[in-house]
Design goal:
The structure is a homodimer of 426-residue chains. By secondary structure, chain A is of the alpha/beta class. Chain A folds into two domains: 40-355, Radical SAM ThiC family, central domain (TIM Barrel, Alpha-Beta Barrel), CATH 3.20.20; 359-420, no CATH class. The first copy, chain A, is built from 19 helices and ten strands. Chain A has helices spanning 3-8, 14-23, 27-36, 77-89, 104-114, 123-129, 135-148, 161-168, 179-191, 196-199, 201-211, 232-250, 265-278, 299-313, 332-350, 357-372, 376-382, 386-394, 411-420, and strands spanning 39-40, 56-57, 63-68, 94-97, 119-121, 152-155, 214-217, 255-259, 284-287, 317-319. In chain A, the strands form two sheets. In chain A, strands 3-4-5-6-7-8-9-10 form an eight-stranded parallel β-barrel, surrounded by seven helices. The first copy, chain A, has a two-stranded antiparallel sheet with strand order 1-2. In chain A, β8, α13 (265-278) and β9 (284-287) form a beta-alpha-beta unit. The longest helix of chain A has 19 residues, at 232-250. The N and C termini of chain A lie far apart (69 Å). At the A-B interface, α6, α8, α9, α14 and α15 of A face α6, α8, α9, α14 and α15 of B.
Chain lengths: 426, 426
């Protein structure tokens, strides 16, 4: 039985028990969320003992995924393993291996060995790099990833003749910016056949079920610029993904959906809510959304801005972007920076998230109390990145009990003294 | 006549003409916004010829202020001038001198000489540093700043016996975190008298009017942590500021209001809207809002996240925060980073802003077209910080026409080729 089937049968599996304890919710509540598909716990049975279950979805804290992987220009497997380890050390909840350069199988297995968080991958890259962009090639790749123990896979099932017809009727500035989406289009354009993952989706579900592999239904038609946001092709893909979520759940397969992309800040809430409605509340995995196009070099930040807004509206899982987005393969430092900034967005969203906000607020309260007491050690301990906070505070070698910005004019201290004198009484 | 009085008499002054042209709106419309106080153009008549008018408020693009200034621990005037120049070079629309160390008068004059953007200051710091925290000392400081040509001043008029009584009835974790606010409390606690800027507000307005000085009504009671957000003291201050805006307008003095502080993401919209209602649409100058407390070292980002949300809700002017916030006086590099990140927030808000979004979107469109064409020079030109984008792209010395992330699997190119083959037709 798959996890979702067990949960439907009323069994609280050890993974559900562990995740519920970690999140501070009732195991039985989490089992119900898993049973209805509103939360997923990506974990491939082939990786048992080497993966730590993590919950993504309603009533659970917002999670952060970090992408690593080689490219054809830059293929250094050890660097990518280091990046994965650095991401986890910086607090990533999951890692995706998006390698497209060198020996992809070896790379994937190294990442799976190196970390214990859930690992995701994109099988179509394998097929493409091996020049096996055929139905057989696609399913072989999927099966190989599943057998290797990958916990979740992105499959761009929403890119099919129906959604592409919508795209054709409503041209974009940037067209399609998803690699998996564009490879699927290449397949369709070369063969005249529809996307095999879509047309043979039942077969795909069988493979997923066999390994209890969680599907991440990719947003191949995510908009690549502000001008393309919220168009009909995107909403058509939401509808498709909704149908495919329904079929996955019926087959006993866990599924989440991926969301766009580049979206102006005032369209994010509608986009997230629409996805939630159209996919019957499937856990939503957000790439960005980037709230502007004009900031290459800062796209970990433009994405995190969108991430907070999306999280407030119900997004469950944020994919970290790095300062290198749109420009270059990220360095390890970029990955670390992207991880922290995305975790900040996830936490800021958690402060507003049903079922999660109380626990999230207790972290901020710890910091607030340390600040009120000018307790610097306490502030460092409560900081999301203590090393950075410490470095900035001590970089000039000036030692004061306040900060070097306010010095003797410390507002906290002055106000406290005035209040003790009774300034607040009439 | 002050600018607001001229505008009421139907005169379109050269400053209004220039700002309207820069913003792409009708001069007569801007004159109406100035006449009603819904937009301000901070410019001290004493600084004529050395200041460039900038518009802040409804129908105008979101502006960014950057703070510089010495502290008692770190007093290097030349460094602060350099920071001011670096901020302007990075696109700051205004600069505030918040100096509290060394010769404050000299510092202020240096900044006023160095830049042409509007310059703001906080006279109460002067009074405090000179140990003249008396009614006379406060007004002397204000008058001196006005005579020096400062274009706008923060006065913490909302911190008075009435608002402090509310604070006393509703204690906070962090108390008061505004330096000006805490100094005002110190004055009240030591003298038993109310805040002179409040009790003698008519006199304050006279001084402001004489120099056509714009008032920035400070949010001395802004919350300093998530736990303190949206409390009664804060809303009491909004009400006070609303009354004081009304009196400023009646006196022919331009006024804007300052907003909090630390606010969870889901309370920002309400906070901004309430301020707009309670101050009859006064231009809103936002400090932050920081959407979480737990990220010292990244508070330029937590503030920018809040800035986007506040901007969407109607905030007009964002104060840049730097990575040093809560820890140390910022370095020049911090100031530059804070300026860019805050400008990104302002622009992301502008993409959603009535009367502004079309022009803002044309910038993103330029980037989108350059990306669609893999035109790297065009991308650098459209980048908010071209040097950074270029540095990241070229740092490894790998030269390709795509990026090193996607290499041959460039989605943009693959999708374009597939679309040219007709994949979008039924």
């Amino acid at each position: 039985m798959t996890l979702i089937e067990e949960a439907r049968n009323g069994r609280v599996s050890p993974e559900i028990e562990a995740v519920a304890r970690h999140e501070g919710i009732e195991p039985a509540s989490l089992a119900r969320l898993v049973a209805t598909g509103r939360a997923v716990l990506p974990r491939n049975i082939r990786r048992e003992g080497r993966n730590t279950a993590t919950g993504i979805g309603e009533m659970l804290s917002t999670k952060v995924n970090v992408n690593v992987g080689t490219s054809q220009n830059l293929n250094s497997p050890d660097d990518e393993v280091e990046k994965a380890l650095a991401a986890v050390a910086a607090g990533a909840d999951a890692v995706m291996d998006l390698s497209t350069g060198g020996d992809l199988d070896c790379m994937r297995r190294k990442i799976l060995e190196a970390v214990r968080v859930p690992v995701g991958s994109v099988p179509i890259y394998n097929a493409a790099v091996r020049k096996e962009l055929t139905s057989q090639g696609l399913f072989n790749a999927l099966e190989k990833h599943a057998k290797d123990g990958v916990d979740f896979v992105t499959v761009h099932v929403g890119v099919n003749k129906n959604t592409l017809e919508r795209l054709g009727n409503d041209p974009r500035i940037m067209g399609v910016v998803s690699r998996g989406g564009s490879l699927t289009m290449k397949y369709i354009s070369e063969t005249g056949e529809d996307n095999p993952y879509y047309s043979e989706y039942d077969y795909l579900l069988e493979i997923a079920k066999e390994h209890d592999l969680t599907l991440s239904l990719g947003d191949g038609l995510r908009p690549g610029c502000i001008e393309d946001a919220s168009d009909r092709a995107k909403y058509m893909e939401f509808i498709m993904l909704g149908e495919l979520v329904k079929r996955a759940r019926a087959a006993g397969v866990q599924a989440m959906v991926e969301g766009p992309g580049h979206v102006p800040a005032n369209e994010i809430k509608t986009s997230v809510k629409a996805m939630k409605y159209l996919t019957d509340g499937a856990p939503l995995y957000l790439l960005g959304p980037l709230v502007t196009d004009i900031a290459p070099g800062y796209d970990h930040i433009t994405a995190a801005m969108g991430g907070v807004i999306a999280g407030m509206a119900g997004a469950d899982f944020l994919c970290a972007t790095t300062p290198s987005e749109h420009l270059d393969l990220p360095t390890k430092e970029d990955v670390i920076e992207g991880t922290y900034v995305t975790r900040i967005a996830a936490h800021a969203a958690d402060l507003t998230r049903p079922g999660v906000s109380d626990r999230a607020r207790s972290w901020d309260l710890k910091m607030a109390r340390a600040r009120a007491d000018l307790d610097w050690e306490g502030q460092f301990q409560a900081a999301i990145n203590p090393a950075r906070a410490k470095q900035i505070r001590h970089r000039r070698g000036v030692e004061t009990d306040t900060c070097t910005m306010c010095s003797e004019l410390c507002a906290i201290r002055l106000a406290k003294e005035a209040m003790e004198k009774g300034v607040c009484k009439k």
